[in-house]
Design goal:
Blueprint (H helix, E strand, L loop, with lengths): L12 H20 L15 H18 L3 H22 L5 H21 L6 H7 L1 H6 L4 H12 L2 H12 L10 H14 L2 H22 L2 H18 L6 H28 L6 H4 L2 H24 L3 H6 L1 H8 L1 H16 L12 H23 L6 H10 L7
Helix pairs in contact: 1-2, 1-3, 1-16, 1-17, 1-18, 2-18, 3-11, 4-5, 4-10, 4-17, 7-11, 9-10, 12-14, 16-18
């Protein structure tokens, strides 16, 4: 999320650019998904060449960004906490309780976003799992690293898998996610504003959280928060020869691990595998291969950012990253207006290629707005509100 105004620790340009990259990638994925509204043109009515192009666009964008852009976003959430906590610590203050208030405020922003984004909001998950950062804020680096590894190992899925080996009738709990998504799709298609908004902030949010549980994102999010905190403590985003060597090693190791993890994931989630295997070890490997590729993306971005040419190329992303909360929520509002029956209802006419072009257009519009806004203001509009409410005068916060 957008870092608050920093006094003791200066903004790090690569972090703003990387955050902007993550929010842009999230936008492109969501645009292809029609913001979790799977209505597309009938393939038989589309030229063969466009169907082929659509398939290629979907494969490339989802392979590059799906599950990875969110992971970068989560890691930087933990890094931002480090910045905020350290700045207050340097003033002799404990930011922890103020951070809990900040998370409560984030629930409000999550509700606004969810109102326009049926069953797809991630901000509520961040607000809930962000409590982990409060708990560990005074822990040692070693202890935090151990806890991060435990989270990223996906202990709940391992528990269910081991139980399935010892108890013949053991099954994963049915969270009813499929049924909830069907109900969300039904009221979304009606185009009724009242049902749409109310359903999204109630049933939609529930479906999103329950999906995150089944997809392994609960523990992965907590683990990524802690990795971001550790990266901040170790100052790995600061340009130095030692840190460059760190990111090179991270890139090499993650790249080597990605291929076998991805192949194993494909085999264990393929049709024909037992559901218990798909939903336990399959989920674990899916999270691991996405984590490995996320590290590849982050490492590559940080290393490329050492080049002036790449900095110039990604200059727009810095503006975009500084207003990440504003951009993330306005994406959902624009997406709902473009694709859903409450708005223009273009979903039935937009395949993956057209949807990608729409996503790029939204990105360019948002970047232009960010540049204009930041010429006159230090923060984005929603970032400013979040900051002001964070530091509101409340006794003993």
């Amino acid at each position: 999320m957008q870092q608050d105004q920093i006094s003791k620790i200066s903004r790090i340009e690569v972090v703003d650019a990387l955050r902007g990259f993550a929010v842009m990638a999230i936008l492109l994925v969501h645009s292809l998904e029609h913001f979790i509204f799977p209505v597309y043109p009938d393939a038989s009515s589309v030229p063969a060449w466009l169907n082929t192009l659509d398939a290629g666009v979907m494969s490339v964008i989802f392979s590059l960004f799906a599950g990875k852009a969110y992971a970068i976003f989560a890691l930087l959430f933990g890094f931002t906490f480090y910045i905020q906590y350290t700045n207050q610590q340097n003033k002799g203050k404990d930011f922890g309780y103020r951070f809990l208030w900040r998370l409560i405020l984030l629930v409000g922003f999550a509700t606004i976003n969810a109102a326009f984004f049926p069953a797809g909001d991630v901000l509520l998950l961040f607000a809930i799992m962000g409590v982990v950062l409060f708990i560990v804020r005074k822990w040692s680096n070693k202890t935090i690293l151990i806890l991060a590894i435990i989270f990223l190992l996906q202990p709940v899925e391992w528990y269910h898998y081991i139980m399935s080996l010892t108890v013949s009738d053991h099954a994963m709990p049915d969270l009813g996610v499929g049924a909830m998504y069907e109900e969300v799709a039904e009221y979304t298609k009606e185009g009724n504003w009242g049902k749409f908004l109310l359903g999204n902030i109630t049933l939609g949010q529930k479906a999103s959280l329950f999906w995150a549980i089944g997809a392994g994102r609960i523990f992965q999010t907590a683990g990524l928060f802690l990795l971001g905190l550790l990266i901040g403590r170790k100052q790995f985003f600061i340009a130095s020869e030692q840190n460059i060597r760190f990111w090179i090693r991270a890139l090499i190791i993650a790249a080597i691990l990605f291929a076998p993890l991805y192949q194993l994931k494909m085999e264990l989630t393929a049709n024909g595998q037992q559901p218990i295997i798909q939903n336990t070890v399959g989920v674990i490997l899916d999270m691991w291969q996405k984590l490995a590729f996320t590290i590849v993306l982050i490492s590559s971005f940080v290393l490329l950012y050492q080049k002036q040419s790449f900095q110039a190329l990604t200059s727009k992303l810095r503006y975009y990253g500084k207003m990440s909360l504003t951009n993330y929520i306005t994406q959902s509002i624009l997406g709902a207006f473009i694709y859903f029956p409450i708005g223009l209802y273009l979903a039935p006419y937009c395949g993956y290629t057209i949807s990608l072009l729409i996503g790029i257009l939204i990105f360019l519009m948002q970047v232009s707005f960010c540049k204009w806004w930041l010429q006159k203001h230090r923060q984005g509009p929603l970032e400013y509100i979040w900051h002001k409410l964070t530091w509101i005068k409340v006794n003993k916060i």
